[in-house]
Amino acid sequence: ITEYSEDRVAVFNLLRWLSHHYGFGSYIHFIKGPLNLATNNESKKILQNLINQSQISSAGFYVDTIVAPTFKTAVAQIVQIPGINGMENNSILFNFYKDNKDE
After folding, report:
1. Of the candidates 2, 6, 33, 43, which lies 20 to 30 Å from 51 by C-alpha distance?
2. How far is CA 7 from CA 73, 89, 90, 99, in A?
3. Could you give the CA distance from residue 80 to residue 7 in angstroms, rounded to a whole number?
4. pLDDT 10s digits, 31-61
5. Is 40 inside any structural domain?
């Protein structure tokens, strides 16, 4: 889960490697805010970019977006989503800079 998909590709590449090793994975882009027409359109645009990025890099994992008022709410919702293989999720990879206290 990340809100920095367009700026930070290292996490995308790490998940691509993990998914290749384990056979599956999910990449979720977080959009902060209420679900309305603007965030829905932003979500569709970012999802299309993620799909294009995964096709170009031959990434073998599921990509999606989530719109939620807070990061905490998004994590709570993502934990409830079953994994792409039908099993429960057993780990989450968070993306943040250790020097940036706001993240």
Report:
1. 33
2. 23, 26, 26, 17
3. 27
4. 999 999 999 999 999 999 999 988 888 888 8
5. yes
Domain contains 103:
no
* Full domain range(s) for residue 56: 10-80
Please choose, from the candidates 19, 42, 14, the residue with its C-alpha nearest in 3D space to the C-alpha of residue 29.
42
Note the pLDDT of residue 103. Answer: 64
Say if 64 falls within a structural domain.
Answer: yes
CA distance 21 to 40: 33
Q: Could you read off the pLDDT of 69-91 as tens digits, one per residue?
A: 999 999 999 888 877 767 777 77
